[in-house]
Structures are given as structure tokens and as C-alpha cells.
Design a protein that fits this description.
The chain has a single domain, classed as tt1808, chain A. About 25% of the residues lie in helices and about 25% in strands. The mean pLDDT is about 95. A six-stranded mixed sheet has the order 4-6-8-9-10-11. Strands 1-3-2 form a three-stranded antiparallel sheet, with helices on one face. InterPro entries: Nuclease_put_TT1808, Restrct_endonuc-II-like, Uma2.
């Protein structure tokens, strides 16, 4: 993840020029190249497919948009582009921008956010944990399929780790899972998956 644009951008600048480009997020006015790779997209694609199958099977009024941005705080020029986001269709009529742009501003619209870790692991394990908790998002999954996160976050020895962050009051409690371990989601109690199931072949 690298900052690539010399001048500070506003939310409007970002929407006008980079909304359709999946490579970029905006953080404090800086354009950030998220540097996605093929294996990263493989993991996020496999997981999104499994989540989608579960949502349909359970007949939940939730869906995974093809593209979606989170504009969490109107006083900061930050726009997040999660790898996977699950939205509650029953409350989208309260979203002020949704009719014109696929932009979410209210945490109540979001049931789940998933970030697949790449070179920007610090952001996924620290800043996004705080931002998504402040928004009130019930669950946040961090899929560190290469074990890139710092030892303080995933332990030693470093290894592939799937972290389920569950919102309790205004803070996330975290449960970690390794290879060959069934993952438990309080939000999706009938959802059965292991990290092994979504790794690149």
C-alpha cells in the first residue's frame, strides 16, 4: 500500500476520479494504492462466494455489492474500499448517497466487512479496527492468508490467520483461527468454513 498522489484530495475529488478504480482508497486526503494481487483476489473471491451462498440459503435480506465504498466520517477525507462488504438492504433507504453513488455513510447499513491482508497489514489490524468499531459494524474479519501481520497481532511463529472481530458495546473482541480450524462467526452461526477452503490452489 503506497501513497501515490502529491496533493491532498477531497471526498468529491476521489469520487469524481477514482470511484470506479478498485486499486485505490483515500486516507486523510492521500490517494493510497492498495496493490491487489491475483492470489489476494482469489482469496476474497472464494470467501465472497461462500458468504453469498450462505446468505441466500438463510434467506437473509443482506447482499454483497459488486462495488461499494465506505465514507465513514464526513469531517475526514477518508474513503474505504473493503475487499468484501455485506449490506442490509432493509435500511439502505436511510443512506443519503446510495441512490446516486454506491457509497455507505452509516454503520447500521453494514453487517460485515472483510479485509484480506496484503502489504498494508498495519492498517487492517489497527486503524480499520478502530474505524469499523466506531461505525458500529457488528463483525469485521481479517483474512491474513500469508501470515503477514506483526507478531503483536498474530503471534509467533507467524502463520496464516483468520481473525473474527465481534463488536461488544463499542470495541471489538477478537478470536483467531489457524489452518484446519473451523471458523466461528457470531453474526453467521450456521456458516461453516476454514481458512484452508479459501486459499489459492
Amino acid at each position: 500500500m503506497t501513497s501515490i498522489f502529491p496533493k491532498t484530495l477531497t471526498f468529491a475529488d476521489f469520487i469524481a476520479h477514482y470511484q470506479e478504480n478498485p486499486r485505490y482508497e483515500l486516507v486523510d486526503g492521500e490517494l493510497i494504492d492498495m496493490e491487489p494481487t491475483g492470489p489476494h483476489e482469489t482469496v476474497s473471491g472464494k470467501l465472497a462466494t461462500q458468504i453469498g451462498i450462505h446468505l441466500v440459503a438463510e434467506q437473509l435480506p443482506w447482499f454483497i455489492p459488486r462495488t461499494c465504498l465506505i465514507y465513514p466520517f464526513t469531517d475526514a477525507a477518508t474513503v474505504r474500499r473493503p475487499d468484501i462488504i455485506v449490506l442490509d438492504e432493509t435500511v439502505l433507504n436511510r443512506e443519503p448517497l446510495w441512490e446516486r453513488e454506491p457509497v455507505i455513510t452509516l454503520g447500521k447499513s453494514i453487517k460485515l466487512v472483510v479485509e484480506v491482508v496484503s502489504t498494508n497489514w498495519e492498517t487492517d489490524y489497527a486503524r480499520k479496527v478502530e474505524e469499523y468499531a466506531l461505525l458500529g459494524i457488528p463483525e469485521y474479519w481479517i483474512v491474513d492468508y500469508r501470515g503477514l501481520g506483526g507478531i503483536a497481532f498474530i503471534g509467533k511463529p507467524k502463520q496464516p490467520t483468520f481473525t473474527v472481530c465481534q463488536l461488544v458495546e463499542d470495541t471489538y473482541t477478537q478470536q483467531q483461527y489457524r489452518l484446519n480450524q473451523p471458523i466461528n462467526s457470531p453474526l453467521l452461526p450456521g456458516f461453516h468454513i476454514r481458512l484452508d477452503d479459501i486459499l489459492p490452489r
